[in-house]
Design brief:
This protein is of the alpha/beta class and 267 residues long. 46% of the residues lie in helices and 18% in strands. It comes from Chitinophaga cymbidii.
Amino acid sequence: MWKTINNGNQAGAYWTEGQGKAVMLIHGFGEDHSVWEHQTAFLRMYNRVLVPDLPGTGQSPLTDNLSIESMAEFVYAILVAEGISQVTMIGHSMGGYVTLAFAEKYPHLLEGFGLFSSTARPDSEEKKEARRKSIRMMEQYGSEAFLRQTLPGMFSESFRNKQPARVENFVNNALSAGKESLIAYYEAMIARPDRTAVLRESKVPILFFVGKDDAAVPPDSVLEQVTLPATASIHIFEQVGHMGLLEVYEESNLILHHFIAFCQRTV
C-alpha cells in the first residue's frame, strides 16, 4: 500500500506491506522502491516492510539542498509517521550511504543494518572526478545517454550475457529519473564523509553483501571494513556485480531474512 508523508520539512511516498517487526529497504542511485520487489514479496511474509522512494525518485519530489543526511531525515520521518521505534535497515549502494547517515544520528532506533553493495568510505578523489565528469555529461547531453552507457556495467558480465532482457528492463525503468535528481544524487555522494567510525562503534549487527564483480564498489575496499563491527554478517558472491539483489535475488532474500531474524533476536 502506498503512503505519503509531508511534515513541512520532508515530503514523499513509500510502499508498505506485511506484519510484524519493521524492516526498511532503501534503494540506490538510478533506482526506485521497485528494485527491491523480490525482497519485498518475500520478506512481507515475516515482517512489516517499508520501501521508500527517496526524494527526487518516483512519487517523492526532489527537495532543495539534497544531501545524504537529508535523505536520512526523510527515512526518519517515515518511521515517525508509522510510529516505529525499532527497525532493521538495509541500503543498496547509495541507499547504504543513507543507512549509515541514519545509523550515525539515530543508532538507538536500529536493531541492525546492512550495506548491500555499499561502503562506509567516502569517494576517492578519482571517484569524485569521475562523478563530476558524469554530471557534465548529463548537463550537456541529458541523462538517458549517461544511464544507457553506465547502468549495464552495474551487472556482472555473466548476468548481462545470460539475462539481457532483465538488464534492459532495469535500464528502461531508470530512464524515468529526472536529470536534476540524478545530478543532485551525485553531488550528495561526492560530499558524503567517511563513516567507517559508524561501523566501528555500532552496537548492533551489520550485514555486508559483496559481489566479486562489483565495478562500482570494489570488493577489496569493502572487505577492509568487515572486521570493524563487533558483529558482522558477511556474504561474498562469485560472478555477481553491483546488482546482487536482482542477480541472485533468491539467495539475497534468504540472507536478508536470516539476518533480520538474528537482529531481532539479539536486541
